[in-house]
Amino acid sequence: MHKHDHPVNPALARVLAVGAFPELAGRSLRRTGVGGTDNVLYRLGTDHVLRFPRIAIAADLLRLECRWLPVLAQHLPLAVPVSEALVAPGGDHPFPWALLRWLPGCDACAHEGNADDAASLAASICALQAVPVPANAPASRAVEFLPSDDFVRQMIAIYPDVSLRARLSRFWDDCLAGADPVGPKVWTHGDLHGLNVLVRRGRIRAVIDWGRVGAGQGAADLICAWTMLSAPARRHLRNLLGADDTSWARGRALAFAKAVMAIPYYQTTNRRFADTMARTLDRVLADRD
Asked: Chain-centre distance of CA 154, in angstroms?
């Protein structure tokens, strides 16, 4: 999926798991989270999940999550991953990996979020932003406003449809004309899209994959409006958050940048994620029009 990728097959996952946790040797093992881009996940028995970073930056993000999510979890209204152990590199896997408690549910990438979902996301964002930011808080790993102009334009140039390229370029020009981000830094999840949200019995129950958590601009988490929600639910989310025009435009620009870069990058290696970002791009452009 990536250059310098280190995927973990079932045999290696079992060897590593049993080596670190012999008491779990008899548990069933099956692949899960196949839409993910940074980690390989295996459900172990009924109560645990193994999370193996597949690239070096994902290992850094896992360490960051294990350090800071316990600090934030007690303040959050939705369930979040609980890490039981961070295992040092060893054997045939070059990165640290984690044993976590299993969270039930399905990812929300095919779930068209409604008003109830908007309310759940708004409550989670508000609760997170209300947590005081200490001086030693990490900087957000989200693609802050705005990512590299050159890289986004390189991605746009890959799209085969000439009229679509022109449309995307015009949208990006408008994004670049916006003001730089201002305001105090707040805690942000940094990657709030449907593959990182779990739904159970039709309701959002958990937010996972906190590796990009950090102090940054609150607009970073507004991407959930376009990555997950229907148009009416987007309006409801904005009303609940009280997002002004500038913040809303930044959130939409970030959702656009994420989608327009991810679609060509993952179109042959991770179609599930690419399709999720294609729906995001459709929503962004529809709002813009």
From this structure: 23
Enter the pTM of the model. Answer: 0.93
Rounded to whole angstroms, the Cα distance separating 102 from 221 reads: 24
The DSSP result for the chain, as a single string, is --TT-----HHHHHHHHHHH-GGGTTS-EEEE-TT-SSEEEEEETTTEEEEEESSHHHHHHHHHHHHHHHHHHTT-SSB---EEEEEPPBTTB-S-EEEEE---SEESTT--B-HHHHHHHHHHHHHHHHS---TTPPBP-S--S---HHHHHHHHHH-S-HHHHHHHHHHHHHHHTSPPP-S--EEE-S--SGGGEEEETTEEEEE---TT-EEE-GGGGGGHHHHHB-HHHHHHHHHHHT--HHHHHHHHHHHHHHHHHHHHHHTTT-HHHHHHHHHHHHHHHHHH-
Q: What's the alpha-carbon Rg for the chain, to the nearest Å?
A: 19
Rounded (10°) CA dihedral 211, 215, 219, 225: 30
Rounded to 5°, the CA angle 240-244-247 comes to 105
Pair of tokens at residue 68: 């800071």
| Residue indicated by tokens 């995307």 | 168
Whole-angstrom distance, CA of residue 255 vs CA of residue 281: 8
Six-digit token string for 227: 């990555």
Spatial separation of the C-alpha atoms in residues 127 and 129, rounded to whole Å: 6
At 209-265, the pLDDT tens digits run 999 999 998 999 999 999 999 999 999 999 999 999 989 998 999 999 999 999 999
Distance separating the N- and C-terminal Cα atoms of the chain: 33
